[in-house]
Amino acid sequence: MALSLPETDEHPHFENASFRVRKKIFATLNEKHNRACVKLTELDQSTFCLYDKEVMYPVPNKWGKQGWTNINLAKIPEEMLKDALETAYHTVNAGKKKGG
């Protein structure tokens, strides 16, 4: 799903797969724990996390305060996952010009 977004590449990131646009990570996938993590704005994070704290929740450290948000892939509806990935993609890609 993440790779369907324009200019997205997949690269290793520690033990996870990361999905990047213009070399910036917008999502990671931890297959072992069936969890994804996306980069959101503070407002988007608080909105998504209202749905269910067992489905989407901030990473429990300083990264969570920077918008990194865990997703329980076993429990999230497909459309919500798609929306979260697209939101993270646009968050990271906002204001970036090609080549700069």
Give a written overview of the molecule.
By secondary structure, the protein is of the alpha+beta class. It has a single domain, classed as Aspartate Aminotransferase, domain 1, CATH 3.90.1150.30. Helices cover about 30% and strands about 30% of the residues. The protein has three helices and six strands; from the N terminus they run E-E-E-E-H-E-H-E-H. It has a six-stranded antiparallel beta sheet. Strand 1 and strand 2 form a beta hairpin. The chain is globular. The mean pLDDT is about 95.
Per-chain topology:
Layout: E1 8-13, E2 16-21, E3 24-30, E4 35-39, H1 42-49, E5 56-58, H2 62-65, E6 68-72, H3 78-93
Antiparallel strand pairs: 1-2, 2-3, 3-4, 4-6, 5-6
Strand content: 25-35%
Q: What fraction, in percent, of the residue positions are helical?
A: 25-40%
Assigned CATH class: Alpha Beta
Q: Tell me, briefly, the overall form.
A: globular
Order of helices and strands: EEEEHEHEH
Structural class: alpha+beta
CA distance, first residue to last residue: 26 Å
If helices are DSSP runs of H or I spanning 4 or more residues, what is the number of helices?
3
CATH architecture term:
Alpha-Beta Complex
Oligomer: single chain
Mean pLDDT: 93
Strands of the biggest beta sheet: in what spatial order?
A: 1-2-3-4-6-5
When the domains are counted, the total is 1
Residue runs with pLDDT of under 50 for 5 or more positions:
none
How many β-strands, per DSSP? 6
Please name the CATH topology. Aspartate Aminotransferase, domain 1
CA radius of gyration: 13 Å
Main pleated sheet:
6 strands, antiparallel
